[in-house]
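Continuing the batch. This is chain 6 of the set; chains 1 through 5 are on the previous pages. Same settings as before, nothing changed between runs. Recording input and output for traceability.
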Amino acid sequence: MENKASFIGVNRHRLGIDGHGVVTLCAFTGCPLRCRYCLNDQCHDEKASVLRLTPAELLDRVMVDNLYFLATDGGITFGGGEPLLNSCFIEEFCKICDPNWNITLETSLNVPLEHLERVFPYVNKYFIDIKDMNRDIYEDYTRLSQDNLLTNLEWLMSQPDVADKVTVRLPHIPDCNTQADVDHSRHVLKGMGVKNFDEFNYLIRNKKE
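Output for chain 6:
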């Protein structure tokens, strides 16, 4: 069966955004979360897909920036949506792309562990959006259990030499968490071995009741 995935966009020249160097952001459709203030709500709408590509077709599309990737230590960032829902696609792509490209993953980690294990040998950098480490806050905000996130994060941080590859995003979410909650999340995550954090404020775009 042909391995095709749906994308809401393949965006070139993300300089200093979504990874080191010149980056092309490949944003998949599909996400298991139903966040109250989704920052990219079109990922839930299959009709929002603008491209359906095989790994080879995506490679053909992004090869135009090969020299930029190599000169700036850049590469491909897989986002969405939740890219790990397309772990087989990512694995196949990474097997055929230039091994000198940096592969970055923007993920909530809320998928079965097998997806993370499949792509782990190929990923150079992880941006992980954990929402909040308080289970009640997380599950109220995302409408989903925190169990997969915790299992995957514990597994990832137990791998050798991975800490410098991981940045955890700590959002301040209006009407959902406080500075004390964010500080608590940081404390818990440091205890798991996380060293790099990106703390920021959500700007409300879409509100789901």
